[in-house]
Amino acid sequence: YSQFKVCVCVCVCVCVCVCVWGDMTTNSTGDLPSSHTAVTTVSIEYRLVDPQTYRYLLNQPSVCRHRSPFLLFMVPVGAEDAAAREAIRKTWSASGRDTLTLFFVGIPQRPQMSALQQKLEEESRQHADIVQMNFVDNYHNLTIKTMMMMRWLATYCPGASYAMKVDADIFVNVFYLIQWLRNSPKENFITGSVIQDGRPRRKPNSKWYVSEELYPEESFPSYVSGAGYVFSADLAARISWASRFVRVIPLEDVYVGLCLRILGVRPVYAYSLPFFRSLFEIKNLKYDRCTFAKLIIANGFKAPKLLRVWQDFAKSHERC
């Protein structure tokens, strides 16, 4: 009987080792760092909102089948924001064959759900640039949406060189951005408006509230503002993998920073000389053609303003 128990234990141990090894070789793109503090404990709460449990309701799985875009724009946007999507199509996303733009949406909130869904499906058939996921669009689901975007990129467009996560109210100087990226690292690279001194807000009435239970640390690692950041496309699969070890918090840009900490990747500052001005301007900035010609993004451009400004910028930015 004792020999039988020993045999059973040995078999169980072998099976566990094989399963763990198989999971690591199949899903990981690198080993976890030896520093135990870098990994946030995976909890039951995290498992309930695991991005891997969600699926795509509308998808564009073949858009990269016969092309490898130099730059893929991934725009998280509400299902109801058709005007923002149309403005982007007519402005900075219409620059040329080197780029591709996709809009990532969730499920419309009731009571307008049925009518909006029909319009969204028609828009998707017309433009073939909408990816919809099966969760309700709201602020607290932005982290899940971002991880689904990363997974989409790694799965359906792995040949892209770079990707940009950019909000729908952002002015993007795509001309300068593409030129600037030609000399940028092609692996383990992420840049934007880097925030190094971020701290969790502990007041429950704050939009950015994070409880001590959810995030016990007193500060955040370096991260890039979610308004708009650019990264080498190889990071999509790695961030998606790292997300399995980080408890979800409702601050999507901080969450990406936590995943980057696990990977040992630090965000890079992007600035212009000689005044060391950030190329990613996340504060509202009054439009000036020649100022914007040396920026990558500027914040605060709803659809009417973006359409109006782009007419001037696109035809005359090269004169600056």
UniProtKB/TrEMBL annotation:
Its EC number is 2.4.1.-. It is found in: Golgi apparatus membrane. GO terms for molecular function: N-acetyl-beta-D-glucosaminide beta-(1,3)-galactosyltransferase activity. It is an enzyme of class 2 (transferase). InterPro entries: Glyco_trans_31 (IPR002659). GO terms for biological process: lipid metabolic process; protein O-linked glycosylation. It holds the Pfam family Galactosyl_T. It is a single-pass type II membrane protein. Keywords: Glycoprotein, Glycosyltransferase, Golgi apparatus, Lipid metabolism, Membrane, Signal, Signal-anchor, Transferase, Transmembrane, Transmembrane helix. Its main location: Golgi. Residues 1-22 form the signal peptide. Gene3D superfamilies: 3.90.550.50. PANTHER family: BETA-1,3-N-ACETYLGLUCOSAMINYLTRANSFERASE, HEXOSYLTRANSFERASE. Belongs to the glycosyltransferase 31 family. This is Hexosyltransferase.
